[in-house]
Design goal:
alpha/beta, 14 helices, 12 strands, 42% helix, binds beta-D-glucopyranose
Length: 369
Amino acid sequence: MRLNRRGLLFGTAGAAAASLAACGKGEESKQLTGHTGIAMPTTASDRWVIEGADLEKRLQALGYKTILEYGEDDVPTQIQQIQSMIDAGVEFLIIGAIGNTSLGEVLSEAKNKGLTIISYDRLILETPDVDYYASFDNYQVGVLQAKHIISRLGLSQDSTETFNIELFSGSLDDNNSQYFFQGGMDTLEPFIYGGQIVIPSNETEQEPTSTQQWDPVIARERMARLLDDFYKDEPLHAVLSPYDGISRGIVEALVAADFEPGSDDFPVITGQDAEARSLKAIKEGTGQTQTVFKDTRDLAEVAVNMVKAIVGGSTPEVNDNGTYDNGFKFIPSFLLEPVDVTAENYQEIVVDSEYITEEEIDNAPADED
Ligand code: BGC
């Protein structure tokens, strides 16, 4: 396809910018082929594995070439992978960033070569070179987790009953973490001020509650310390956890400290991502009690539609222009809705929608591999 002159002359500023992205500075305009580099953060969690394959499949179905790489939570590796994609001549980058502020230099080169950069799920910060953001309402994720705790504990602001809760948050170098945590904290706050929620550790800020690289082992160790320091004689009623891997680390620490999953003394524990092992625990009542499902098929579709629109010379559809400021500008975003999942509705939400089969849930390994 030639550059769409009509789009350039009469389209929106976004369409013009998008079409111009086809050619680098001083280059002749050339036809876009949809060649896309997909830089994913890690294979350690199910969602990114599913999404990498899904993105490739969808792009290839449109006839576009793809390169898929996983940075395995190592920032220099991801930078090098993106560099190789640029060198291989991709026109689009779909990036699930590892370090949210580490990509400025490589993206500047990408931009100079005329690439379009889509920040995928996690917002890339402190660079002017991000074109679009495809993600979920990340604040709402935290709201759903906190609401689960409120409903399971039957919290009421009129009550004089108190409940002990501990808080976990995600990796500090992931922009999403603050949104998850803020959504959770804003929702729990009235009960903290009302005295119904007590946080015995007093670790209530993002930094002390954070979990570097979302690592379940770090979460397990922190939970073990909290149990040791504050729960020798006190009940623990709930744990706000931002992600299924972290939730399973928390459960491991509880089990090691003789808490019995499924018993009345076992805390309410939240999660995110609807991972098979966590769905199994939710279904069987053997660990966390909730997860937040973000339908990554829809997210992949949003990102692929952005590429497809630009290849076709039009402006990608966005539904939010004023939430995600990356330090340089508000990034045009398409945000999807997360969904609360418990033992009561997991079948309808994740099985009936064919995200996962009942067998995959049942056969999920009990331990981390
Ligand atoms: C994603 C979550 C995921 C976490 C750990 C976040 O950026 O939004 O879905 O649980 O990373 O991989």
